[in-house]
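QUALITY CONTROL LOG
STEP: pairwise intake check
CHECKER ROLE: data steward
CRITERIA: each record must contain a sequence immediately followed by its structure tokens, with no blank fields

ENTRY 1 OF 2
RESULT FIELD BELOW
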Amino acid sequence: MPINYKDTVSSDWIDKKLGPLKFGTLVATMREHLEMTQAQFGKKFGVSRQMVCDIEKSRVTVSLNMAIKIANAAQWPLPYVLVRYFDDQIRRAKLNYTVKVEEPSRKSA
């Protein structure tokens, strides 16, 4: 069932709905939300169908730049995608840390 992130209040809502996501699972969810094939989705950010499949199955680790391209291609909120990306990297390294992504506070002049 596709998730419409625009209807969510926060990433906590998605986590409660789906549980903690691996980055690859998130990519598959984003693609399914767009109702695209792996080949169609891959074209949006310049990779092959096979690469999309490998990302979704967590057989490859993508660069931070690729994670940003994927988020932009899917039009998902970048902070949420970055948290999932870094959480996945931390989990693969078997570290016990959590990630929080925030926009920098703006200082008034």
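ENTRY 2 OF 2
RESULT FIELD BELOW
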Amino acid sequence: MIYIDQYPEWIAGPQSMWHLGGHLLTTDIQELHAFAGRLKLRLDWFQDELFPHYDLTKRKRETAINHGAKEIKPGHLPADMLIKRQGIWVPIGIGKNVTDSEMIRELEKDRVR
């Protein structure tokens, strides 16, 4: 499944080229690259800092949705998404959407145990 979120206003305000854009993401890197190719995105635009994704402008975000990307709320990742924290891919939840702050709290709990 390919997902698309939308940048919050505080990240990409009205003057930004990223205004109303978002992240194109999935758990399957090959699927992500194939979908990005259909959107005519360059492979060197791929980012893997916190989670595997491509940044999209408003127009590319709309195109991604028209091609079947599932919209998700900003700051939330579906349970099947993985996130990279401190060099480790970590599952962020089972059966519910989890925000990054919730994810960090869960990792901190595990670190204390």
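INTAKE CHECK: passed for both entries
DESCRIPTIVE NOTE, ENTRY 2: The chain has one domain: 3-112.
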